[in-house]
Amino acid sequence: MELKQVILVRNDLKMPKGKLAAQVAHGSVEAVINSDPKLVQRWLKEGMKKVVLKVDSLNELKKMLQAAKNEGLKVGWINDAGRTFLEPGTATVLGIGPDEEQKIDRVTGHLKML
Fold this sequence. Notes:
Blueprint: E1 3-10, H1 17-34, H2 37-46, E2 50-55, H3 58-70, E3 75-79, E4 91-100, H4 101-108, E5 112-113
Parallel strand pairs: 1-2
Antiparallel strand pairs: 1-4, 2-5, 3-4
């Protein structure tokens, strides 16, 4: 079973490209830190497959967080520090996994790529 990681980005925030890239990186790293080390090692050896998808609102991001938790997936929820573009505490991205691709797809398979 192939492993992957998914990072969900709030599209409604209209972050500049550099800000968006930094937030995606934060979400990826936080999710890895929270994941099972054995899965992370396997994922690293497989090439670290990542997919960046979009959600349209904070509410949708929260729904995805709950769905991921219900599926037993490890996540990384990112709230911005507010030093540049966004207000402090703004939720920006949700990293999910790495974990089994099918398991993640049950939660995020309906979302579109960023």
